[in-house]
Structure formats: structure tokens, C-alpha cells
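User: Can you predict the 3D structure for this chain?
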Amino acid sequence: MKTGNCNSQAQEAAEQPNFRGIRDIHQQVLVLQEKTLIAVPQDVDVHPISMMSIPCRDQSLEKDKGNPIYLGIAETELCLCCEESGEQPILKLKERDIMELYRNQKAEKSFVFYRNATGNISTFESAAYPGWFICSSVEKGKPITITKDVGKNNIAFYFDPRD
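Assistant: Here is the predicted structure, written as C-alpha cells:
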């Protein structure tokens, strides 16, 4: 029989990713096509992904940016990251174990996003590229990308807990 105090039980609970549904403010859900996230209208024939999130434990990250988290796609080994391509960053899905990222005391910044929530709306800013946010297009069926032009792109998402 395992014994322990409430703190160790809470810590164990925190060591599992949270599963969440994600959709943009235009009610588009995210689907996985090969290794690309696409925003499509919600429909009975559409099977949206479940997003996994888990906190980044690196205490050296900026404190005023939001909650630093890792984001991954449930039932895959794919995690969201930002990498430079040419003169600007791009959003990619890379094969990584989200729990491996979590266990590292030092953050892999390209995989860290600052989540800011206002009510039930969240934004996700890249830790590696400050001022760049995960975004969806107002056009349906377009890939999820990253932008610094927040006025032209949608950076607001519903990040709903899944049962």
C-alpha cells in the first residue's frame, strides 16, 4: 500500500498531462492532417484532436508572461514547437514525448508557450520568440501557424477541459 502526504499526491497528479479540447473563436476545431494542424468548422463528421498540456517546471522563465506550458497532441508523440525558418519563426509539430519535456528541469524554450487566459479564452505566446502567438486563419481549412501580427490573425482559443 502506498502512503504519502497530500503534497506528494498533488505532485503526482500534476505529473500527468491535462487533456483539452481546443477551438478558435470562429468555432473551428483542430484536426491533424499528417504532421499539420488544420482549423476546420466543427461538424459531426469531423474528429478534432485532444490537446495535452503540462506545466514547464523551469523557474528561470519570465514570470509576467503567463503560465509556461508544453502542448502536445493526445495519442501521438507530437508536440508543438517554434523554430526559425528563414527570417521568422514557424510553428511545427515535432516527435517528442511531452512527459520527457516535463521531467527536464531546464526548459526547451522552442517547445514552451505562455498561456494567458481571460475568462474561457486563451492565447499562447512562444517563449522562444516573444511577441509571436499561435494563430488560426479566418479562412476555413488553413493550417495553424504562428504570428506577430495579432490584428490580422486570430490568436484567441477556447481551451476546454476534456472529461
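Residues 6 and 12 are 10 Å apart (CA to CA). Confidence is low (pLDDT under 50) at residues 1-13.
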